[in-house]
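Annex B. Sample input.
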Amino acid sequence: MSFKRYPAYKDSRVEWLGEVPAHWAVQRLKWSTESCQNGLWGDEQQFNEDDIPCVRVADFDRQKLRVELIDPTIRNVSERERLGRVLGPGDLLLEKSGGGENQPVGCVVRYEDRVPAICSNFVARIRIAPGMNSSYWRYVHAAAYSVRLNTKSIKQTSGIQNLDSSQYFDERAAFPPVSEQDHIASFLERETGRIDELVAEQRRLIELLKEKRQAVISHAVTKGLDPTVPMKPSGVEWLGEIPAHWGVKPLKFLTQPNRPIMYGIVLPGPDVGEGGIPILKGGNVKPSRMVLREMARTTSDIEAPYARARLVAGDLVYAIRGTIGDCEEVPPELHGANITQDVARVAISDQHSARWARWMLLSSAIREELACGSLGAAVRGVNIFDLKRVKAPTPPLFEQTSIVKYLEAECGKFEQLTAAAERVIELLQERRAALISAAVTGQIDVRDAA
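Annex B, continued. Sample output.
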């Protein structure tokens, strides 16, 4: 869809705005607001009349630029303390503290719920000035955020980003007439809503591809590739029937006798950088992160007592804490590295295919069986003894090789389709951001379209 431009423009003398429609004003952001008041955290929930939902930064839907109170945090705030702080539909909420390297503090969203709530001490409530359209102004703040206008007002203290709201509201923005604010807001609500629906469809497609991929893996490593082969009971309830010529063995019997399944360094200490010994953590068990430059390093004194856990190229590493179940083959560049207690090393013997064992460990049946015994309240984990004893359906070596070849081809197709869907999402989000920026800076005239 193409949009016409306004008949006449003028220089805004503001870098991020460029030229704006000749009849638009250019003023400081603060003139769009009536007030900007910091939130408060209150006390623990007391189950009385002073309990009230408290909006946190975690409740910000940064894509749709609104608050999503799906599972609100309840805090106890007296009537006197909440006076003048209760959120109403149309209020904007400014993230004042938090952020990170790739997501700086300063996001603005709109409160659209009719449930009375307050905002936390990391958030400020912006009450829009009379006559202004709050939906339009959330898009202005979104456009400003996309060009990192907020970063000039960020103060860094103790590793936490804090936004100087006074400085931020001194930045300049375009002020179209109120009737045009209404048109632009209506147009963007409709068009971004359509884009959001398309993004949601692509995300549903990705989830379906993940489910289908998992089903293909599970069927191949538990039932084989020949649908006509005779079957037999496996003797394992969660495994069901397997091909009659397959066996079932505990995983530990598939490994090298002198290199048992084990985890590594319990307390690796701080990263010592170059010269230290690379260590693989649970979060590293991903193809994109199993590279030397991503590895933390520890001293030889700390690593030496765990020499038995050192990796050899071709070993498998299995994440047993945190996000459990990730399993990858050790690349040659990590030969001689060590692991932490979040990772188990699985050294498959020559009588079996390590690449087949990886697919087997990634199957739903095995992952779900291990997840059922996961330990820990704060951090989930797989007990190393459960991993050793988990029953593995075991085809002959030649069949393991065939299964590997089949799964690499089939899963490669799923990965291509997933990558294509992710690219579509990326393009849609770029389109969304560009549309918002063009509308609130007057680069397109959407009055007729609205």
